Amino acid sequence: MSKAMDYGYALYELAAEEGLEEKIHIEFDEMVRVFEENQDFTKLLSNPRIPILDRINIIDNVFKNRVQNYLLSLLKILTEKKEVSYVPQIFKEYRKQYYKSKNILPVTVISAVALNENQRKRITEKLEKSMNKSVILDDKIDPSCIGGIRIEYPGGMIDASIRNRFQKLQLNLKNADYSIAEV
Questions:
Q1: DSSP 3-state assignment of 28?
Q2: Which residues of 85-123 are buried (b: 16+ CB within 10 A; e: fewer)?
Q3: Is the whole model's pTM more than 0.85, yes or no?
């Protein structure tokens, strides 16, 4: 298990013991966005030329009273150990544990054109019924799908795209040509 996974798992276990898993999930997601939108922030907190106490003060100025203390403490530990770059991976592991405990399945639907609200709702309802989980649906546009959809989720995929049908047809035609050549 990697350090990021260890940190994420440990934070989730601690949050679950205190009944804070949802609160920390929301706050951690917001914290990760701050890091993603401000790439220099990670560099600043990792800069060995800045004294550790000054870097800790920066964390307090940005996050104190905005995030739960366990999350704040984790960020301070990561700063002290020069491991701030692990924040996104730690959140990924935390979210994985959170989803697992709450029976949530993150799903990505890929289509040639944007889905409308009714389509999103129907897909979500069908997946929740068939998977027996709550579904968090994310949709992406990929014109190479041509039509139909491809559904990706941890541990599986359902490909009902026109592109996939064309590829299967092409394979069948190649196999048929080969069979005919043998005769």
A1: helix
A2: ebbebbbebbbbbbbeeeeebebebbbbeebeeeeeeeb
A3: no
